[in-house]
Amino acid sequence: MSEQIKDANELARASAAPVATAPEPPAGPANPILVADYLVAGYLPGVNILNGCNLTVGEGELVGIIGPNGAGKSTLLKSLFGLVNVRSGTVTLGGEDITNMKANHLVARGVGFVPQNNNVFPSLTIEENMRMGVFLKPQLFEERWEYVVDVFPKLADRRNQRAGQLSGGERQMVAMGRALMMRPSVLLLDEPSAGLSPALQDEAFIRTRMINKTGVSIIMVEQNARRCLQICDRGYVLDQGKDAHVGPGRELLNDPKVIGLYLGTLATDVENESKSRRRLK
Ligand SMILES: Nc1ncnc2c1ncn2[C@@H]1O[C@H](COP(=O)(O)OP(=O)(O)OP(=O)(O)O)[C@@H](O)[C@H]1O
């Protein structure tokens, strides 16, 4: 057999042989809009809270972030919004590098952020809060006000009431409404259901989905992990500053590792709570 034919035979055998391949990473969104790539970030010198964290949100996607206390969920949102210094890694918006860009520039580029606390101006009325939201482009006020009160009709009824006099749920509506005034393409929500009664939590999730359905991409950090995974398109489980598990919300809900580590605890908590309620009766 000639050398050439031997080589050709070896090549054919090699290409027919099964090749060991790494498992496919979970499919990301078709049209990524905001991408965080291997972020390392923290508050104090030498102490990293994010340790190589990745996150992608696609156009029109609702992404949920869950994880144990102190995992770095809020820090991740703040890093995306220029409020915590990113030490390495990149954040891109529509393909453009926005790493460590200041929050006011990000708002002008279509990123909105609703922090968990102190998220309204208490001495201003609802309308004045909304005007603050659009101070970079006051000409947008009327059009955006119509959009916001379509999502939160209660705000129209209370237009002249001071935000400080509102309930927790109503204040949350004002905070989300204000962030929506600048017509964001991406909205970052830090625990929109925190401190609300179960009925109001449900309402917050429904409104969040409604906003998302109008075309706004949303990244939502949530303590109510089950409810969050039920409504989001994809979820991230953060652990020790890294994206430990990623996948469609409903897949994560049924993933034994996620149930064991993060959701199991919550289910037991719920069970214990109802047991102790029964004992009290
Ligand atoms: N301003 C800050 N200065 C120093 N350390 C901070 C600051 N804010 C948060 N941390 C620390 O960063 C870590 C992660 O906090 P972070 O709030 O991001 O976690 P989380 O996952 O959102 O937790 P939780 O679910 O309890 O809100 C914690 O150890 C926290 O103490």
From TrEMBL:
<keyword id="KW-0547">Nucleotide-binding</keyword>
<dbReference type="InterPro" id="IPR027417">
    <property type="entry name" value="P-loop_NTPase"/>
</dbReference>
<dbReference type="InterPro" id="IPR003439">
    <property type="entry name" value="ABC_transporter-like_ATP-bd"/>
</dbReference>
<dbReference type="InterPro" id="IPR052156">
    <property type="entry name" value="BCAA_Transport_ATP-bd_LivF"/>
</dbReference>
<keyword id="KW-0813">Transport</keyword>
<dbReference type="GO" id="GO:0005524">
    <property type="term" value="F:ATP binding"/>
</dbReference>
<dbReference type="GO" id="GO:0015807">
    <property type="term" value="P:L-amino acid transport"/>
</dbReference>
<dbReference type="InterPro" id="IPR017871">
    <property type="entry name" value="ABC_transporter-like_CS"/>
</dbReference>
<comment type="similarity">
    <text>Belongs to the ABC transporter superfamily.</text>
</comment>
<keyword id="KW-0067">ATP-binding</keyword>
<protein>
    <submittedName>
        <fullName>Amino acid/amide ABC transporter ATP-binding protein 2 (HAAT family)</fullName>
    </submittedName>
</protein>
<feature type="domain" description="ABC transporter">
    <location>
        <begin position="33"/>
        <end position="265"/>
    </location>
</feature>
<dbReference type="GO" id="GO:0015658">
    <property type="term" value="F:branched-chain amino acid transmembrane transporter activity"/>
</dbReference>
<dbReference type="GO" id="GO:0016887">
    <property type="term" value="F:ATP hydrolysis activity"/>
</dbReference>
<dbReference type="Pfam" id="PF00005">
    <property type="entry name" value="ABC_tran"/>
</dbReference>
<keyword id="KW-0029">Amino-acid transport</keyword>
<dbReference type="InterPro" id="IPR003593">
    <property type="entry name" value="AAA+_ATPase"/>
</dbReference>
